[in-house]
Amino acid sequence: MSKTLSHIDILIRILHIIIMIAFTGAYFTGDNEDLHQVHMMFGYILLISITIRVIWHFLSPRVSNSAPFGIKKRSSMAFNAIKKSFSHANAASIFSKNSIQLFSIGLFQASIVFIFILIPVVVALGYGTEHFTYSLRDLHSFFANLFLALVIVHLSTLVLNSILAKRFQGWTMLKMTLADKKITNYMTLFVLVLIGGFSYFYLGM
Length: 205
What we know:
mainly alpha; globular
């Protein structure tokens, strides 16, 4: 009998929160020279977090009780939801609650896909600006602002979906639980120690 896998666990929840905090910190310290070291730290934390998230995507189904959604799955979900919102069945009621909700769900999933794609791009451009050529700064700023726009779309569709569903849709991501397998909890602790230790030593350099 095959086991039922959840698409989310405590490690994914923690990484989601870390990514949100790191992006917010990086964005609002980007133009402050006094906080440049902090800005770089947040950028590296973004890269560390997304790297762990990708590794966990492939590792968790083998060692844990979760099977996180990847880019391919979310892209398919986004495409199907948006396509369905414009389908012939909904053509006569394009502004109906159902059509709007489907379109919003599609945008929500699409924003996740593009956010994950943009994180390494933004970090790489920031690293290039810092260590190779300052001429990349404008490009780095452009993609950082594009990232912010995607975050706004992500949060806006989350709010809209919550209103239409009459319940907060983000609770699944934010609700913490220790019911996952021990290895998942240990990995979560390891990630927190890793990022905490990295932050401490990086700022102390």
